């Protein structure tokens, strides 16, 4: 392992968003540390997948990046920087008008269950026009109408649907309208939180194809959040895996498919059927995610890990680069099993083969 290093995801590709040391707490009698010390770099035009089980902090991170956190949540450390051609923008420090101008224009969000977020008493045209009118008040009525029709066409919906109300549209169409809305001001970054989870598999595939087509056409970058890592293998350029508020592995999709390194990533990959329908034995990860109010100064996955040793219960493994990752590559993992000095022997062969056997567990008191 090399020492932790801030590297660029793809050499030669400019970053559009940098998250540095970000931590978010939910204030309570015992504060919930929902996001802990997260570093991520999003390249221009890149699709970065963010995966992890429910409760690992994905949505909290997305809300922090879009400055949508409300009490009791607050950013307790770190920063988010948007790299605008006109100069860097400190997103964490934006207030008032500057923040309103940033949202939708630079970075837009498609929320979990967004298709149910459309206003049921307004037709599609009014809702799309509202976004344009609010952010570009100088746009004339004729121009607004033209842009609304173009936006629907862009996402593969017949512009005649502009006069439809949400209840007259299928779930897939409503989700396409939400994507059209997020693209209304041509942002550089789209944060999509479980955008297809509520849809059936066929419609889900259509929407994913639409997102990748639009990305190629318009060049925006995407942070795509889901608990379904097999879906991310289909659409992402890079993937970050979160566990208990931290990123525990990060790498190119190609590498994560070929050689997932963290036992949790391996477990997740064995928990989902491939979206392409390939069949194989599926093994869930036994046990539960830890309590995020705990200090977790050990490996948070240790209780559930088939490869744990005493060191895993004693020390939290840092997120560090692989020794064998090419210079400048953003390939990182937080697991003692890759550090023979800490682990006491080489990485277990079954882990290197990408197998997850919960029964292999070595009993260590935690
Ligand atoms: N208002 C709140 N007060 C206290 N804790 C909260 C609050 N909202 C979320 N949390 C906690 O923060 C942690 C992270 O939640 P978050 O919703 O970000 O996870 P997630 O990975 O997006 O999960 P999901 O996939 O279910 O949306 C969880 O432990 C959750 O219980």
TrEMBL record:
Signal peptide per UniProt: none
Entry's Gene Ontology cellular component terms: plasma membrane
Natural source organism: Actinopolyspora erythraea
Subcellular location as annotated: Cell membrane
Name this protein carries in UniProt: ABC transporter ATP-binding protein
A single BP term in Gene Ontology: peptide transport
Superkingdom, taxonomy of origin: Bacteria
Entry's family note: Belongs to the ABC transporter superfamily.
């Amino acid at each position: 392992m090399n020492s932790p290093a801030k590297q660029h995801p793809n050499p030669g590709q400019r970053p559009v968003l940098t998250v540095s040391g970000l931590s978010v707490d939910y204030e309570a009698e015992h504060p919930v540390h929902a996001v802990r010390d997260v570093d991520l770099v999003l390249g221009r035009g890149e699709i970065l997948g963010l995966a992890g089980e429910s409760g690992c902090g994905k949505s909290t991170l997305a809300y922090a990046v879009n400055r949508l956190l409300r009490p009791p949540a607050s950013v307790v450390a770190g920063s988010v920087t948007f790299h605008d051609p006109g100069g860097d923008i400190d997103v964490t420090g934006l207030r008032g008008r500057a923040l309103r101008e940033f949202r939708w224009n630079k970075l837009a969000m498609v929320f979990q269950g967004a298709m149910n977020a459309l206003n049921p008493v307004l037709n599609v045209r009014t809702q799309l026009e509202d976004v344009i009118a609010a952010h570009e008040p100088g746009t004339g009525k004729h121009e607004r109408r033209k842009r609304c029709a173009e936006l629907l066409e862009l996402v593969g919906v017949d512009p005649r649907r502009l006069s439809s109300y949400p209840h007259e549209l299928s779930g897939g169409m409503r989700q396409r309208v939400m994507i059209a809305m997020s693209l209304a001001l041509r942002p550089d970054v789209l944060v999509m939180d479980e955008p297809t989870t509520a849809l059936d598999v066929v419609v889900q595939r259509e929407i994913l194809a639409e997102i990748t087509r639009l990305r190629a056409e318009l060049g925006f970058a995407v942070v795509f959040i889901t608990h379904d890592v097999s879906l991310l293998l289909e659409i992402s350029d890079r993937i970050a895996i979160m566990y208990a508020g931290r990123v525990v592995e990060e790498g190119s999709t190609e590498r994560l498919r070929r050689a997932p390194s963290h036992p949790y990533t391996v477990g997740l990959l064995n928990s989902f059927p491939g979206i392409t329908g390939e069949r194989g034995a599926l093994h869930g990860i036994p046990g539960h995610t830890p309590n995020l109010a705990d200090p977790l100064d050990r490996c948070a996955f240790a209780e559930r890990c088939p490869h744990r040793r005493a060191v895993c219960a004693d020390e939290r493994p840092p997120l560090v680069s692989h020794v064998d990752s090419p210079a400048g590559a953003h390939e990182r993992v937080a697991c003692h099993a890759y550090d023979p000095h800490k682990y006491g022997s080489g990485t277990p062969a079954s882990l290197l083969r990408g197998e997850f056997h919960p029964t292999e567990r070595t009993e260590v008191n935690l």
